Amino acid sequence: MGVARADDDNRLTVVELFTSQGCSSCPPADAALKSLRDRPGVLTLSWPVDYWDRLGWEDTFAHPHNAMRQAAYNKRLGRGGVFTPQMIVDGRVQCVGSKPEKVRTAITKARELNHMWITPELAAAGDSLAVALPGGAVHSTAAVRIVWYLADAEVEIGDGENAGRRLHYTNVVRASDVIDMDWSGKAKSLTIDLEEGRAAGADHVAILIHDEYGHGPIIGAASMALPEMVTKASLSN
Question: What is the value of pTM for the model shown?
Fold first, then answer.
């Protein structure tokens, strides 16, 4: 752990998209996020928001907490209100997610910002996820957030601005919570029940480390696929 350089191979760039199934401007941004997903050194996350549900279609993945996260980011970045589709890179740079040139610029700008970077280690053992936080100095404290997400989903939109369309979504956040509010930077291990993610409908997990609080600039990240659940029936076969 230390100050990350713009060309640090171990540093992930976290691209978060705030989107809605009820927003006609969002499908191009959803497609852009899909194209970014397989880039080396990039972690993409889709946070469906619920404030467009009033247009006639309730987003099947949306959660009010996602809109709260977006609002908290925008307040810190000096923006009034929220909009979709919005991408936020490393919790530091924002842009309109449906404009490829804006997305490229935002990612480049975020990558050029040198700052501390922490890479947690993730490992699954049985029904538990072990999270190892390496020791190192942080500015004050840091918040450690777990994000359970679904790699791929297709949804038939029955009403609203996208009525009649079948849309594909990638890395859809199904649940998220802060699992350590004030990590001091001392080496630490956390154990998480994998059933939490499976119960939320996720097949992947990410750990995000935020500077100072749960919606601060991102100073660390890691992700992995959830292992398939081993049942007694499968063990006997």
Answer: 0.93
